[in-house]
């Protein structure tokens, strides 16, 4: 009996000692855990403060723009007082009809009460870390509705283009009232917006990957960053690539998010493997054509086409471009396959676009010409003069029965491919496409997944979004703090990218 009691007492004592030891080992960890928890709370409070400050900044900026627009209208009204006082809306309609102004431009320019410009929506921005972009996943993002469309064709019985009479929007004049259209565009209704602040110089190009999960953005200092805006997507592919020269073109491999092509101002073409996080191929164009203005991957075959240009002395970006070179490259051997014929001393090619099966390539030139190539034959099959000035950007329409072109003068045309030289739709973007506000004057455009919204770069802090072939008014993006230099749309969702001269890239989801 005594032995049993002693044994029981010994067991209790050992258990007590073990608990004491565990207690004394755990006790020093408690202050550290409390400190970590406190630091996390502090960080969360700071993030909330940053969101609130960004929100207030956006609201103040929008309010400032509205006040400036009001001042502009008052000055315009004061300058045109003798001609505008006493003019009724009916008289304005009569005058507009006689001058050829279309319905949409009448609404934008005559009646300030027709459009209700909403204030900046209550929305927070996140400053994404350059190496690990943190953002909310795109939850419940609705696809854009199909607006009712109507083709407003221009009568052209001969089927040939007349560049001097191609502009459908002949109502834009140099008076203050009609050139202030930016302020009269309603602001987009935003679901969410993320801001990436990883660059240290102006953004030159930004592109969604084939799936839309990854983004590549480039700046004029020769830096390319790969990142994601969606926290539900793995950030393991995030990377920074230093190219040593200004980035002039970017394009993702069309079948996957694995390869990114980078074209530079010193004739370099790099292929970056996002899985291996390294350059898998470093190509060079000929010394005679050092500026790689555009790169396009075939949507079907493992090839890509580079548009390079020679250099010459000029007062602006377009004038500094010389002759063109179009080269087809094999992405398996990383060797040049052939050169597409352009004739003797051809003007520089600024923009390329493949159709859905890669059989047709459209190319835009600085002399205002559009060239169409048969990739199987390696020959040009047609072409036509589209603009009086250089073409900055070219795109196939969603049904591939048309081609969009953006001139350096701001004129936008949608061309019929079934009736060559026939214009299906047009807009005058001159008030946004101001060459004097852009260092390189390399304006571009992007179509949404449905082909009904056309987003265009801007010399202003906001970019316009035009409704293609629709009678509804255009929209405008939320403001950056400097000119918007590059744009792109998500391949399937109503989400777009805007890169700015303020060194930032924004991902915006619209309702």
Structure in words:
With 511 residues, the protein is an alpha+beta fold. It has helices spanning 2-26, 29-79, 81-84, 89-99, 103-109, 181-184; strands at 127-128, 190-196, 203-208, 215-219, 223-227, 239-242, 247-252, 259-264, 268-273, 278-284, 291-297, 303-311, 321-330, 335-339, 349-354, 360-365, 369-374, 379-385, 391-396, 402-407, 411-416, 423-428, 445-447, 453-456, 464-467, 475-476, 484-489, 495-500, 505-510. A hairpin with a 6-residue loop joins strand 21 and strand 22 (423-428). The radius of gyration is 28 Å and the shape is globular.
**Rg estimate, integer Å:** 28 Å
* Overall mean pLDDT: 76
Low-confidence stretches: 1-6, 9-26, 80-127, 129-182
Strand content: 25-35%
> What percent of residues adopt helix (DSSP H or I)?
10-25%
What would a concise description of this structure say?
With 511 residues, the protein is of the alpha+beta class.
Short descriptors:
32% strand, Methylamine Dehydrogenase, Chain H, four-stranded antiparallel β-sheet, alpha+beta
Write the layout of secondary structure elements.
Blueprint: H1 2-26, H2 29-79, H3 81-84, H4 89-99, H5 103-109, E1 127-128, H6 181-184, E2 190-196, E3 203-208, E4 215-219, E5 223-227, E6 239-242, E7 247-252, E8 259-264, E9 268-273, E10 278-284, E11 291-297, E12 303-311, E13 321-330, E14 335-339, E15 349-354, E16 360-365, E17 369-374, E18 379-385, E19 391-396, E20 402-407, E21 411-416, E22 423-428, E23 445-447, E24 453-456, E25 464-467, E26 475-476, E27 484-489, E28 495-500, E29 505-510
Parallel strand pairs: 1-2
Antiparallel strand pairs: 2-29, 3-4, 4-5, 5-6, 7-8, 8-9, 9-10, 11-12, 12-13, 13-14, 15-16, 16-17, 17-18, 19-20, 20-21, 21-22, 23-24, 24-25, 25-26, 27-28, 28-29
